[in-house]
């Protein structure tokens, strides 16, 4: 699907035209789509990029882990450092390494500085 | 002549996998979080890529939440048992870590 179709689908092609904050968000969204389609193997590249960064790992069970990504593999097995576990509120602190089995992982996301 | 290397080191230039780092915990006490609200603390004797594990001197903690019908408060109950030697099937494992310091 090319960005042109997306553009029209969003109602910007004919008649309607987003302005202000909505337009900026749309632009950023489309730029990301274009960048991703120019790169090959985005998931593996992403996984290599985020090593060493603070990440949020959400499990299928809903439990949240925040820590620094030490390493991971193609099964999404994860090794984290300085990990904190969140279930609704904060539960446990794990210092040192925590290994998470990949089949339980729902997503891995980078943490922005504003928390 | 090869210099002697410890069993845990490998000649590798690539980034270690998470499983390589578990290897560092062999023969150490570890904490394992499993599905169905279970936790294990024991000594890791062996593991494989599925995270099947052999644990020795294990203490298993099963946590249940009961809800009082009248007050609707959540009551956390945990049941513990000790097992001298245990085979853990990997698909139940959620997380492996060094034992938690009291926190």
Automatic annotation (TrEMBL), chain A:
This is U6 snRNA-associated Sm-like protein LSm6. Plays a role in pre-mRNA splicing as component of the U4/U6-U5 tri-snRNP complex that is involved in spliceosome assembly, and as component of the precatalytic spliceosome (spliceosome B complex). The heptameric LSM2-8 complex binds specifically to the 3'-terminal U-tract of U6 snRNA. Component of LSm protein complexes, which are involved in RNA processing and may function in a chaperone-like manner, facilitating the efficient association of RNA processing factors with their substrates. Residues 42-114 form the Sm domain. Belongs to the snRNP Sm proteins family. SmF/LSm6 subfamily. Component of the precatalytic spliceosome (spliceosome B complex). Component of the U4/U6-U5 tri-snRNP complex, a building block of the precatalytic spliceosome (spliceosome B complex). The U4/U6-U5 tri-snRNP complex is composed of the U4, U6 and U5 snRNAs and at least PRPF3, PRPF4, PRPF6, PRPF8, PRPF31, SNRNP200, TXNL4A, SNRNP40, SNRPB, SNRPD1, SNRPD2, SNRPD3, SNRPE, SNRPF, SNRPG, DDX23, CD2BP2, PPIH, SNU13, EFTUD2, SART1 and USP39, plus LSM2, LSM3, LSM4, LSM5, LSM6, LSM7 and LSM8. GO terms for molecular function: protein heterodimerization activity; RNA binding. GO terms for cellular component: Lsm2-8 complex; nucleolus; P-body; sno(s)RNA-containing ribonucleoprotein complex; U2-type precatalytic spliceosome; U4/U6 x U5 tri-snRNP complex; U6 snRNP. Signal peptide: none annotated. It comes from Equus asinus (Donkey). SMART domains: Sm. Its main location: cytoplasm. PROSITE patterns: SM. Keywords: Cytoplasm, mRNA processing, mRNA splicing, Nucleus, Ribonucleoprotein, RNA-binding, rRNA processing, Spliceosome, tRNA processing. SUPFAM superfamilies: Sm-like ribonucleoproteins (SSF50182). It comes from the Eukaryota. Transmembrane segments: none annotated. It is found in: Cytoplasm; Nucleus. It holds the Pfam family LSM. InterPro entries: Lsm6/sSmF, LSM_dom_sf, Sm, Sm_dom_euk/arc. One of its GO terms (biological process) is mRNA splicing, via spliceosome.
UniProtKB/TrEMBL annotation, chain B:
The keyword Ribonucleoprotein applies. It is found in: Nucleus. It holds the Pfam family LSM. PROSITE patterns: SM. InterPro entries: Lsm3, LSM_dom_sf, Sm, Sm-like_LSM3, Sm_dom_euk/arc. One of its GO terms (cellular component) is U4/U6 x U5 tri-snRNP complex. It comes from the Eukaryota. Belongs to the snRNP Sm proteins family. This is U6 snRNA-associated Sm-like protein LSm3. The gene is LSM3.
């Amino acid at each position: 699907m090319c960005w042109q179709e997306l553009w029209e689908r969003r109602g910007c092609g004919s008649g309607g035209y987003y302005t202000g904050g909505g337009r900026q968000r749309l632009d950023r969204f489309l730029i990301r789509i274009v960048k991703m389609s120019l790169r090959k193997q985005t998931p593996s590249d992403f996984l290599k990029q985020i090593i060493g960064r603070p990440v949020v790992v959400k499990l299928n069970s809903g439990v949240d882990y925040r820590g620094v990504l030490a390493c991971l593999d193609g099964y999404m097995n994860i090794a984290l450092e300085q990990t904190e576990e969140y279930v609704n509120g904060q539960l446990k602190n794990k210092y040192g390494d925590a290994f998470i089995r990949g089949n339980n992982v729902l997503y891995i996301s980078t943490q922005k500085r504003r928390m | 002549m090869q210099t002697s290397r410890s069993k845990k080191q490998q000649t590798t230039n690539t980034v270690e996998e998470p499983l390589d780092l578990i290897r560092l915990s062999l023969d150490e006490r570890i904490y394992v979080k499993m599905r169905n609200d279970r936790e294990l603390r024991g000594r890791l004797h062996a593991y494989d890529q599925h995270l099947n594990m052999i644990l020795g001197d294990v203490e298993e903690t099963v946590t249940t939440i009961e809800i009082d019908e009248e007050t609707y408060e959540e009551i956390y109950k945990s049941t513990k048992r000790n097992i001298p030697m245990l085979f853990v099937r990997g698909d139940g494992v959620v997380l492996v870590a060094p034992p938690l310091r009291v926190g």
